[in-house]
């Protein structure tokens, strides 16, 4: 019996050597907040991420490597995030997505020291786009600063010029809500408009006092900067205060659910988007065919094609593309090779799901492109083309803030 | 049998006033302390960094709060704000060039002064009204931290702790951070055990039980209540600084939000008001039970035992956790400390049940 086992073993060894890099299970840690603050997005976002990974596995993986998602709830609590991160790291995860600002902030330095990739798509620090200061952090998509710049540019080109106009920014009173202010300062100076900020208290279930002041300010455009339930309240209260839906422009966090909550009045409201929504996209079609139709989907079928679902798909599309490029060198995937793969991504658009992004060692934002879409009563319809607005200005703010981080903040 | 009471006679005051009168208790405490000191060699970095270290620090925080809530009977629902003041003060002081050892003390004093100012509300109001006053403190401190960029650290409101050393020991490795936190927890524990036996501790208890009765027998409620807030906030402030430097190493306002205050109150209540071991057990339960449950349920789900959606999967641990809190409090309203005490008393005279006190 021993000789049989030995032959079998050596045969297996020879077979293993024949393949260049042995196929492995690549683990991604999707340690997100399913129960506390980010519940408005996490469910659909995570569903999209896992469905895409299932799709890649169904299609044979990347060079035979399959992808596994380690999914845990962190409840938006840093100490639970740290535990989940350490545990997933021990299990071999090489990429992390926390989708939570406090958890990401608590792990930023540690992930760099451990050489693990952290993606912070559409959340987290904008200055992490500077790859020279944050080598392992990848915002990948347009940061809040790029989003604000894109929205202002849209007001300029589609609102008949912006010089001398007034913008009211109504935001949640938190670091996230305050985030667009520095770029608005710079833009106001450059473009000659004026703006005023109107904060409302977190979580934003009640915003009447802020909006009655907005009404007195008589703005030409309104920018709403919040997330979750507060967004629908913003739109509703704005309309009650005589602001036309067409005047309202939103940060990325405005989706189908909010439109359903606001009702028919929502028609005409615009938002920034980093990924296309809907199911008429090649990747989403393939997910429906190979994952959903075969019963391997990770959640409700109704969510497929929603804004946040597609955003989740896009994040994993970029990550898998980075893994593919990282494996090109013939070495197994680690944090380092995955990082190198990310920095090789050039002009990747996930078959039309998002604008082409190019990530370099300096620019981890991937260009910062996006577009504006409008709610037509049933779906989000794009009203501008994919492009990056004021890239030099955004880059300048990123570098200034990153230098500040280098000093300890 | 386990405690071997025979032959242990307290024949003088000194022996009778020992913290742990029974040799078995002393051995237990010494063993636990020795294990705690040796923890960096005994447990993997995963468990040291994600379980033991936060548990020790939150136990210290719960002890600080139980001094106020358990011993002096003053409710405080804004204790995370006290810790925030300590954490932010210590970082800014160290950045300004103050040595870490002194910055720790100063941050405690700053937290104590601000905490005592809000504690002044306790001179006029009691019970639920005091809860409201301390809640106001929580929201005011939150608001100030978020709205003053100089405190919170600018656009992203994240402050990283500078590299420091404590008594010439470099505080950067996990083990050194753990030992510093352990030293602080041990110091608070010894302080708490002894403060119970001082005149200050006795006047706190008198105030808790009935403040005007205490005034009649000569305890000054004004001074005692303020001192209670001052002492507790001092300890809380230093615990906040330890939390920042030894555990998070990057401070954001969300780390000290209202939900953290509620967690601290839960630690004190679930553990047992005013009890030392209760603070440790309560902090362990509130902090670690959700983590254990999340991993347990995720493990069961991965092996196909509970085939449910991720969303339900994430909420299931919370459901069980909530049921456990209610269960413990129904089973023993005086908290985990009382459960420990019952077990200890059972074994104290085991197997002679009839001799139980």
From TrEMBL, chain A:
Signal peptide residue numbers: 1-23
UniProt-listed CDD domains: PBP1_ABC_ligand_binding-like
Keywords: Signal
Keyword Signal attributed: yes
Keyword Transferase: no
Alphabetical list of Pfam families matching this protein: Peripla_BP_6
Domain of life: Bacteria
Residues of the Leucine-binding protein domain: 25-376
Family in the record: Belongs to the leucine-binding protein family.
Protein name (database record): ABC transporter substrate-binding protein
Organism per entry: Paracoccus caeni
Organism lineage: Bacteria, Pseudomonadati, Pseudomonadota, Alphaproteobacteria, Rhodobacterales
TrEMBL record, chain B:
GO cellular component: plasma membrane
Main subcellular localisation: membrane
Keyword Membrane among record annotations: yes
Ranges that cross the membrane: 27-46, 52-70, 102-121, 128-146, 178-195, 226-250, 256-278, 285-306, 318-337
Keywords associated with the record: Cell membrane, Membrane, Transmembrane, Transmembrane helix
GO molecular function, one term: branched-chain amino acid transmembrane transporter activity
Pfam families for this protein: BPD_transp_2 (PF02653)
Membrane topology: Multi-pass membrane protein
Subcellular location as annotated: Cell membrane
PANTHER family: ABC TRANSPORTER PERMEASE PROTEIN, HIGH-AFFINITY BRANCHED-CHAIN AMINO ACID TRANSPORT SYSTEM PERMEASE
Protein name: Branched-chain amino acid ABC transporter permease
Species whose genome carries this gene: Paracoccus caeni
């Amino acid at each position: 019996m021993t000789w049989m086992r030995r032959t079998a073993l050596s045969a297996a060894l020879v077979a293993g050597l024949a393949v260049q890099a042995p196929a492995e299970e690549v683990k991604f840690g999707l340690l997100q907040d399913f129960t506390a603050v980010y519940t408005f997005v996490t469910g659909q976002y995570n569903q999209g991420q896992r469905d895409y990974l299932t799709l890649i596995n169904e299609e044979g993986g990347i060079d035979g490597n399959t992808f596994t998602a380690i999914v845990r709830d962190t409840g938006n609590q840093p100490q639970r995030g740290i535990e989940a991160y350490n545990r997933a790291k021990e299990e071999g995860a090489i990429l992390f997505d926390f989708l939570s600002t406090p958890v990401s902030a608590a792990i930023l330095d540690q992930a760099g020291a451990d050489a693990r990739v952290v993606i912070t798509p559409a959340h987290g620090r904008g200055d992490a786009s500077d790859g020279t200061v944050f080598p392992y952090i990848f915002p990948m998509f347009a940061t809040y600063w790029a989003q604000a710049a894109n929205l202002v540019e849209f007001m300029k080109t589609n609102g008949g010029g912006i010089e001398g106009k007034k913008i009211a920014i109504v935001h949640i009173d938190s670091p996230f809500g305050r985030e667009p202010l520095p770029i608005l300062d710079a833009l106001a100076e450059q473009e000659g408009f004026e703006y005023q900020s109107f904060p409302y208290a977190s979580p934003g279930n009640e915003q009447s006092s802020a909006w009655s002041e907005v009404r007195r300010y008589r703005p030409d455009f309104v920018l709403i900067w919040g997330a979750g339930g507060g967004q629908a309240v913003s739109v509703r209260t704005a309309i009650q205060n005589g602001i036309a839906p067409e005047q309202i422009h939103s940060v990325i966090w405005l989706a189908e659910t909010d439109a359903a909550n606001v009702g028919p009045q929502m028609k005409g409201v615009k938002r920034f988007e980093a990924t296309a929504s809907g199911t008429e996209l090649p990747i989403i079609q393939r997910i429906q065919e190979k994952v959903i139709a075969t019963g391997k989907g990770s959640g409700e079928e109704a969510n497929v094609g929603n804004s946040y679902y597609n955003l989740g798909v896009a994040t994993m599309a970029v990550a898998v593309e980075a893994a593919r490029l990282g494996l090109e060198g013939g070495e197994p995937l680690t944090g380092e090779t995955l990082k190198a793969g990310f920095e090789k991504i050039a002009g990747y658009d996930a078959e039309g799901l998002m604008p082409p992004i190019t990530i370099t060692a300096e620019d981890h934002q991937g260009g910062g492109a996006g577009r504006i879409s409008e709610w037509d009563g049933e779906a989000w319809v794009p009203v501008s083309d994919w492009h990056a607005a004021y890239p030099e200005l955004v880059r300048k703010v990123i570098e200034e803030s990153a230098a500040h981080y280098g000093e300890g903040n | 049998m386990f405690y071997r009471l025979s032959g242990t006679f307290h024949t003088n005051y000194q022996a009778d006033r020992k913290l742990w009168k029974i040799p078995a208790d002393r051995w237990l405490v010494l063993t636990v302390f020795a294990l705690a000191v040796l923890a960096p060699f005994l447990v993997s970095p995963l468990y040291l960094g994600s379980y033991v270290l936060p548990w020790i620090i939150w136990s210290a925080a719960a002890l600080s709060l139980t001094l106020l809530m358990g011993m002096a009977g003053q409710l405080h629902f804004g204790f995370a704000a006290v810790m925030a003041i300590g954490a932010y003060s210590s970082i800014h002081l160290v950045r300004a060039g103050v040595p870490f050892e002194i910055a720790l003390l100063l941050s405690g004093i700053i937290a104590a002064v601000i905490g005592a100012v809000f504690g002044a509300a306790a001179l006029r109001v009691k019970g639920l009204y005091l809860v409201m006053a301390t809640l106001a403190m929580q929201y005011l401190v939150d608001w100030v931290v978020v709205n003053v960029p100089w405190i919170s650290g600018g656009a992203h409101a994240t402050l990283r702790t500078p590299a420091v050393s404590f008594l010439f020991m470099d505080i950067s490795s996990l083990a050194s951070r753990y030992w510093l936190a352990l030293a602080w927890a041990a110091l608070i524990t010894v302080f708490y055990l002894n403060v119970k036996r001082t005149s200050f501790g006795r006047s706190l208890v008198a105030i808790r039980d009935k403040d005007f009765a205490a005034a009649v027998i000569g305890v000054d409620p004004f001074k005692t209540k303020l001192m209670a807030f001052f002492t507790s906030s001092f300890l809380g402030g230093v615990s906040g600084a330890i939390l920042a430097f030894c555990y998070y190493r990057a401070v954001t306002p969300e780390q000290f939000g209202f939900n953290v205050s509620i967690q601290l109150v839960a630690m004190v209540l679930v553990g047992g008001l005013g009890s030392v071991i209760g603070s440790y057990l309560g902090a362990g339960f509130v902090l670690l039970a959700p983590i254990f449950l999340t991993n347990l349920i995720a493990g069961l789900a991965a092996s196909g035992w509970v085939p449910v959606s991720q969303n339900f999967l994430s909420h299931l641990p919370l459901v069980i956790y909530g049921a456990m809190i209610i269960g413990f409090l129904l089973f023993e309203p005086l908290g985990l400390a009382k459960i420990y005490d019952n077990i200890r008393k059972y074994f104290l005279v085991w197997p002679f049940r009839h001799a139980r006190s």
